[in-house]
Amino acid sequence: MESDAVEVAPAAEIRGTVRVPGDKSISHRLAMLGGIADGTTTIHNFAESADCQSTLGCLGRLGVKVDRDGSTVTIHGRGLDGLQRPDRELDAGNSGTTVRLMSGIMSGQPFDSTFVGDASLSRRPMRRVMDPLRRFGATLTAQDDNYLPLRIRGGDLTAIDYTLPVASAQVKSAVLLAGVFARGTTIVRESIPSRNHTEVALREFGASVRTAAGTIEVDGGVRLKGGTFTVPGDISSAAFLIAAAATLPGSRLRLVDVGINDSRSGFVSILQEMGARIRVEPKAPARGEPIADIHVEGSELSGMEIAGSWIPNVIDELLVLAVLGTRTREGIRIRDASELRSKESDRIQAAVANLRILGAEVEEFPDGLFVRGQQRLKGGTVKSFDDHRIAMAFAVSGLFAEAPVKILGADCVGISFPGFFRTLAEISS
Ligand code: S3P
Fold first, then answer.
1. Which of 184, 206, 259, 365 fits a 20 to 30 Å CA distance from 13?
2. How far is the CA of 97 from the centre of ligand 1 (A)?
3. Do 99 and 193 lie in a common domain?
């Protein structure tokens, strides 16, 4: 077998207790804010993800000292005005969150910086952050005014009032992070809520942030103060295991200390609405981020349409929901999700191609897909499209297909969940 291919065989059930890796989105934010805060920030259960390693690498280039001891990361903050001119390009690897969020920070620096990334990241749109950051007064240039390399000449920023044209937490966060460096109060307006980890973390670092329905305000020039944090488990990683357990009868899975922030936990609500047996047992929150143990038992699932304001909340879980669609009574219809085409791969095209290889009937739309219910997948060989979430979603399909599903290019799971295949093997039988 190719070294980078993994085969997942049909399983009867999922059983066990799992602690999934720390949340990727939260880890990025705590590391970045730690870098521009005064004092030391200690982050326990920091995500094992390669993407978060890219963020730490970029911070290192900017003169931030980072120590790592197992899953604990210590960031020696340089304060609002202490980052150093990088001696070379900032490599964001595969990570959209690294380049988009950090471009907000770099816009506030009195020096030039340039972001580069891998082939996938180099195909992803950056104009969405360039537009608002230019309005602050920064100068940004990119290939075709949209693609990496992205060069930023930061400077004297003036606060803006910005209405998000796309429901994107990455764009919102880039604006808020630039707002920390700007003169005046920056306002971001969003018509559909997206994940709010930046707002939560800014407040914990002592920033002056106010949130109301659809509006976030941050005052510029307020110094941040480092602290100690524990990152909750990543619900987007847990989602693959939850999906597997929810559909295999006889399964009993417990996931420990998972982040269930309202702006991220739509996946659980959607599955519950589809009849899944999931119990959420809340625990004490960790510095503004709600946490729970999640108990899942296998059952029959009905179908559902997922569209509108659900989409930003479950953007990273849509793939596994599509795969699960084949197991439901009425199928899964996803609409209003054209953003999926701008992720690590064109996730609509990739999911449709792989489902068809496995013999499924799927309809493709510009903004989504329809996967008919009650279909038995036949097994086969699919590609990851170098996209970690495609690899994991189709690993789940192997558990309930008639024959094994082989995933080519499976190593990319390390982008968010390095031990994924080992964990899956341990809990499936
Ligand atoms: C993320 C936001 C989402 C998500 C990505 C992580 C974040 O992207 O898909 O995996 O950490 O802010 P968009 O905000 O671009 O939708």
1. 259
2. 6
3. yes
Cα distance between residue 198 and residue 164, in whole Å: 15
In a domain, 221, yes or no: no
- What angle, rounded to 10 degrees, do the helices at 24-36 and 169-181 form? 10
Q: Do 142 and 77 sit in the same domain of this protein?
A: yes
Domain assignment of residue 207, yes or no: yes
How many domains does the structure of the chain reveal? 2
Q: Is residue 223 part of a domain?
A: no
Q: Tell me, yes or no, whether 242 and 262 share the same domain.
A: yes
pLDDT in tens, 97-114: 999 999 999 999 999 999
Pocket test for ligand 1, best of 23, 24, 25 (most atoms within 8 A of CB): 25
CB-side neighbour CA atoms (13 Å) of 255: 34
pLDDT tops 80 at residue 2 = no
Residue among 33, 216, 314, 315 to mutate when testing ligand 1 (max atoms within 8 A of CB): 315
Residue 39 has pLDDT above 90, yes or no: yes
- Which residues does a 6 A CB cutoff place in the pocket of ligand 1? 25, 97, 168-170, 173, 194-195, 315-316, 339
Residue nearest to atom 4 of ligand 1 (CA): 316
Domain-terminating residue out of 216, 249, 271: 216
Distance 257 CA to ligand 1 centre (A): 21
Residue nearest atom 10 of ligand 1, based on CA coordinates: 316
Residues involved in catalysis: 316
Residue 173 Cα: closest atom of ligand 1 = 12
pTM above 0.85, yes or no: yes
User: Can you tell me the distance from the alpha carbon of 393 to that of 324, in angstroms, rounded to the nearest whole number?
Assistant: 9
**How far is the centre of ligand 1, averaged over its atoms, from the C-alpha of 66 (Å)?**
24
User: 168: domain range?
Assistant: 24-216
Closest-lying ligand 1 atom to the alpha carbon of residue 194? 14
